[in-house]
Design brief:
Layout lengths: L2 H6 L2 H26 L9 H4 L3 E17 L10 E3 L9 E14 L2 E18 L4 E2 L4 E2 L4 E21 L3 E19 L7 E18 L1 E4 L6 E13 L6 E15 L3 E19 L4 E17 L1
Antiparallel strand pairs: 1-2, 1-3, 1-14, 3-4, 4-7, 5-6, 7-8, 8-9, 9-11, 10-11, 11-12, 12-13, 13-14
Length: 298
């Protein structure tokens, strides 16, 4: 097996390879559409066509998958506990967020964003015995669980590709991530809890295309294009974090008032934390599904 194939065999890196290929695929299709499709934006000034500021709202509908472990590798004590099948947490998750951005210069964009806190509660009768460092939950007993998460951050985009129909480049983010999972039952003296509260520096790449078609009164136009954004955390030795989204965008420009743009596509996020194995804790979480957003461009 070649070195590249061995790297691709690692699950977290395999997801990264898949995301990168998807990002380039969507970008290539959107770029081809921009080149082949004539539109009123062909002669527009880049700054005139790319908005100075935006405000938006997004909703992400995902499916939960992951494990929380209280095992110790040296002694083999404990079990890896599935968030859905062992702890009974809901499969379907919904995330709501707010997006803000400002483009003070042609190639520079600053962003701020945040997701509202999410709380999911679960519980069920165990079909197998679960064990942590200090507590054993026997098969047939009931267990309760809770998953909490929230995030907010700020970012800077350097768009070295910019024009009437597209912009893209690299970005850096400073993102606060809160993840908390707890489990227990009536007979346990205390709850088992794993909590991650980290300010994570991130890097990534992004693009968006816009093809404008005039319609109706002067100043009205319809925008059609695609978008993609991939972000990964820069602390893989502590918390491995990947966030990816790509899809299509449709906007309507209303004279001099601004543009209302809707986006829909695929979203994937992954977290992996195993730096507490010495005290018996590890955490893996993946959520993927549909992302929908509505933004006002001014």
């Amino acid at each position: 097996m070649s070195a590249i194939n061995r790297i691709r065999a690692i699950p977290s890196l395999r997801n990264l390879f898949t995301g990168v290929k998807t990002l380039f695929g969507v970008f290539g299709f959107s770029l081809l559409l921009s080149i082949l499709t004539p539109g009123s934006s062909a002669q527009a000034d880049p700054l005139e066509y790319n908005p100075f500021s935006t405000i938006g709202f997004q909703a992400i509908f995902t499916r939960l998958d992951g494990r929380i472990g209280f095992d110790q590798e040296t002694t083999g004590i404990g079990t890896l506990n599935d968030l859905r099948y062992d702890l009974g947490l809901p499969v379907n998750n919904t995330t709501f967020g707010i997006l803000l951005s400002m483009r003070p210069l042609e190639h520079h964009l600053v962003r701020a964003y945040g997701n509202f806190p999410e709380v999911y509660k679960g519980g069920q009768l165990l079909t197998r015995t679960l064990q942590t460092r200090t507590v054993t939950y026997p098969a047939g007993s009931s267990i309760f669980s809770e998953f909490r998460t929230a995030s907010f951050g700020a970012g800077y985009d350097l768009d070295f590709l910019i024009g009437p129909r597209l912009f893209g480049g690299l970005h850096g983010d400073l993102k606060y991530l809160e993840l908390r999972v707890r489990m227990g039952n009536a007979s346990s003296a205390y709850e088992d809890t794993l909590a991650i509260n980290e300010l994570v520096p991130c890097l990534g790449a992004h693009f968006q295309t816009r093809n404008s078609f005039a319609f109706g009164p002067a100043g009205y136009s319809l925008n059609l294009g695609g978008f993609g954004r991939m972000t990964w955390g820069m602390t893989p030795n502590f918390l491995s974090y990947v966030d990816f989204s790509a899809g299509a965008a449709l906007g309507v420009r209303i004279g001099g008032l601004g543009t209302l743009e809707a986006k829909a596509g695929y979203h994937y996020e992954s977290y992996f934390h195993n730096q507490e194995l010495s005290v018996g804790r590890s955490f893996e979480l993946k959520r993927d599904g549909i992302i929908i957003s509505v933004e006002g461009l001014f």
